[in-house]
Prior knowledge:
- With 167 residues, the protein is an alpha/beta fold.
- It contains 6 helices and 5 strands, in the order βαβαβαβαβαα.
- It is globular and about 45 Å long.
- It binds adenosine-5'-diphosphate (ADP).
- Adenosine-5'-diphosphate binds next to helix 1, strand 4 and helix 5.
Amino acid sequence: MKIAIYPGSFDPVTSGHLNIIRRAANIFDKLIVCVMVNTGKNPMFTQEERVELIRRVTSDIPNVEVDYSAELLAEYAKRKGSCVIVKGLRAGSDFENEFQMALINHKINPHLDTMFLTAEHQYMYLSSSTVKELGNYNVNLSEFLPEQIIPDFQRRIKERRQGGNSK
Length: 167
Ligand code: ADP
């Protein structure tokens, strides 16, 4: 069974992420979407919340599993019996960084390869941080976020604005 890992911060999962998930799930027998700890970012949603949001938007895809981990990705993949990491590649910005990460992961675990799926044109410039920025304005978010999570996102934006929640 070919198992692939799709890692990321998914804070929150966007329509661009979901597009990659659907396409990767069509290629592999099983796709594990893994929320990784990213200490450099001040997250909007906790890891558990992000997992729950991804589970909700992928509930119709039977071969997708959602998990979170603080492990080194190369170690995590080994433990899960996976030899492929899937990454989405957007125009320009992602390449340098992702290329370096792919080489490092392969160095740490020589059985591990990284496969890149190019972003669909309508999601090419979409990132979680852009969506968080847009959330502060009165913009229709349905092109950027899966419908099922828009209320959660708007609620969190409001909480943060009111200062009642430090997330
Ligand atoms: P973001 O950059 O949106 O915060 P993550 O850090 O969670 O996203 O990225 C997880 C993975 O999803 C990475 O491989 C990233 O390149 C990919 N990705 C993010 N946004 C898109 C998009 N709009 N289209 C395709 N891939 C994407």
